[in-house]
Design a protein that fits this description.
The protein is of the alpha+beta class. It has two domains: 13-24 and 108-240, no CATH class; 36-101, SH3 Domains (SH3 type barrels), CATH 2.30.30.40. The chain is 37% helix and 18% strand. It has helices spanning 108-117, 121-134, 141-166, 169-175, 179-184, 190-193, 213-221, 226-240, and strands spanning 13-14, 36-40, 47-49, 58-61, 67-75, 81-86, 92-96, 100-101, 199-202, 207-210. The chain has a five-stranded antiparallel beta sheet with strand order 7-6-5-2-8. It has a three-stranded antiparallel beta sheet with strand order 1-9-10. The chain has a two-stranded antiparallel sheet with strand order 3-4. It is globular.
């Protein structure tokens, strides 16, 4: 039997969904106590140094998404502002202010949005995820949700093409597992799953699709926002194709 043939009894789409508003399923480290909570968003600038200057001794490089506690700040002789931060109870140092944002600091949501708009591919997804996890009360959240959801739709298209190229039909047929399980286990999905993006399998077109949870949040939580109009169009298009 050709593994790509479809049985009429198959549903139009298989959906494995999670709540968009929940965390991405991975345990999140608590920030250190004793300072303003901030999160690393630009790993190009995230060198933790022993002193507040670009020539300071490197302690370590801090990964994107890591939570820090800001305990003070200082401007270097060349005008760069550094935060004194706690990474853990045992690790502290100085990090360039431009590398981090804080939900408690006015304007940091707008600064992160500018960085998101200048980002591409996975960097865009990772930074929008940081925004959505940390700036839950921001007036800019609908715009970021729209960027995140549009990017997820585009990623589903690309991953579908990749999966078709890399999944060998003969091997799938010999393995005997359902077709959709090969697509939904495709390793290319892993890093996007970790960013909260859930994919579903469209049995009619034999391809991956974004589950649309971000579009649904826009409609339900921000029904009067400009972004909600586009979200309704996307959801209506899904419904017309028989997708939930």
């Amino acid at each position: 039997m050709n593994i790509l043939s479809l049985r009429k009894s198959m549903p139009a789409i298989l959906c494995i969904s999670v709540s968009f508003l929940s965390t991405n399923g991975l345990a999140k480290r608590r920030p250190p106590a004793g300072g303003r909570v901030s999160v690393v968003v630009d790993e190009r600038l995230s060198a933790l140094r022993a002193s507040p200057e670009l020539s300071g001794i490197l302690v370590k490089r801090i990964g994107r998404g890591v939570l820090l506690a800001v305990k003070g700040e200082k401007r270097s002789r060349d005008g760069v502002v550094f935060y004194r931060v706690m990474v853990t109870t045992r690790t502290s140092g100085w990090i360039q202010r431009d590398a981090v944002v804080s939900p408690a600091r006015v304007g940091d949501d707008a600064r992160l949005l500018r960085l998101i708009k200048g980002s591409e591919d996975f960097d865009l997804i990772a930074r929008t995820r940081i925004f959505l996890d940390n700036f839950r009360a921001s007036a800019l959240r609908p715009e970021v949700l729209s960027i995140y959801s549009q990017a997820a739709d585009e990623i589903a298209d690309r991953l579908s093409r990749e999966a078709r190229r890399r999944l060998n039909e003969k091997e799938m047929d010999a393995g005997g597992a359902p077709l959709h399980s090969y697509f939904l286990n495709y390793s290319g999905l892993d890093r996007y799953n970790r960013q909260g993006i859930t994919f579903v399998f469209d049995f009619h077109e034999k391809r991956l699709r974004y589950d649309g949870e971000g579009w649904r949040e826009l409609v339900h939580r921000y029904p009067h926002s400009p972004e909600a109009a586009e979200a309704r169009k996307r959801l209506e298009s899904r419904s017309a194709r028989g997708l939930r």
